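Record now logged for everyone:
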Amino acid sequence: MRPMVHADQPVPVPAGLVLVPFRAARFPASGPALAALTSPPYDVVDGVERARLQARDAHNVVRLILPGDDYDAAARTLQEWLDGGVLRRDEKASVYVCEEEQDGHVQRGLIGAVALADPEAGIILPHENTMAGPVSDRLALTRATRANLEPIFLLYSGGGETSRVVSALVATPPQVETTTDDGVTHRLWAIDDPAVLTAVAADLLPRRAVIADGHHRYATYRHYQAERHAAGDGSGPWDFGLAFLVDATVSGPQVHAIHRAVTGLGLADAVRRAAAEFTVRRLAGPDVAGLDPAGAGAQPAGEPGSAQGSAAGWPGGGVDPDHLLDELAEAGQGGHAFVVTDGTSAYLLTEPAAALLARSLPADRSAAFRRLDVTVAHLALIVDVWGLADTVGVVDYHHDAPAAIAAAAAAGGTALLLNPTPVGDVTAVAEAGERMPRKSTLFTPKPRTGLVLRPLDA
């Protein structure tokens, strides 16, 4: 979706990557009390989790970000919380340093208001396409609340003055600290010193950022900006959007794969079709595909060179997801690799045929796009080899392997496990002006909703 603007009301074009301070609305709490008020991002909260968060605290931010169809109720709630002191505005406009720590991994970045730019400007680069439904939903919420309730997640290559400022500040005691129930510790510091903000701005201006998470929210920002300009409101806070900007080269995120469950295709059929175009090796369970190891490239579990043996099972029964992912990671060092499983048997697919790649991968796309595992998985394996439509309901997505395997097993289908896409490959596709297949990569930890909100009144 592309914002439309009246010709006489053009939106401003930033000179570069601009992150400005703002007066945040925040819960006046820290520690466990603050954790009870926060939420994961809206798009990973299902109905059960929403009800749990609402029950945990009457002022949990999920009441703002997921109000059902009553967007005006969210607006009334936000105003009531601001008027009643549940949320308080910071006195000074600030950029906020946010540190997230989980299982020894530390991610640090800046929360501020980023100047919006068309992707064609090459300043803020998306790497995935958006769908109309989520943008329409977030846009209706933005119109009603007149606020950015959740930040988008941006990555950039830095190592400059901004990263030095962040590193120095996190050595001091945080102003806010809390550990949420997902095991992530969040720490917050405010920067309001004009000299420091000026130095950060100068360092960021020539850089560009890639959207790691929040493509629909960024599209919403730009649509709302276009609406305000079309209405004759001119320049204002709607020319910026709440963002968490992370230096991926210094303290960036962890990268995880998003796995697939192809519920309408049984494992035996999936493997037999794949054997014509891939090298296939059985990793676990009985040979449901009836392959000839010598002819099809399959290798029975437990036989010499299989790397299977006693690692096939796990305490829950069936295949061991961790073992399959280990095999996948090792195989992926040498090129494209995928694991397919129904929860009982599992096969490794490697070395896709050159003819398959030549006919299934579009020649007019960049080398960065064509070399992605997710590109080969979708265009070569799912569409070409399996002959399936690459649509929701045919291909479903899961953030962890056990969930993908369970979904496939329950439906009599096939789970497709992938290796993570390196950050450098994501950036290369975005810099080529292209989009990756949907749900290609999961970056964690994501910014927590409720730490910092941005009313669009100043």
Remarks:
- Confidence is low (pLDDT under 50) at residues 1-7, 294-316.
- Residues 259-417 form one domain.
- The chain has two domains: 19-256+444-455, 259-417.
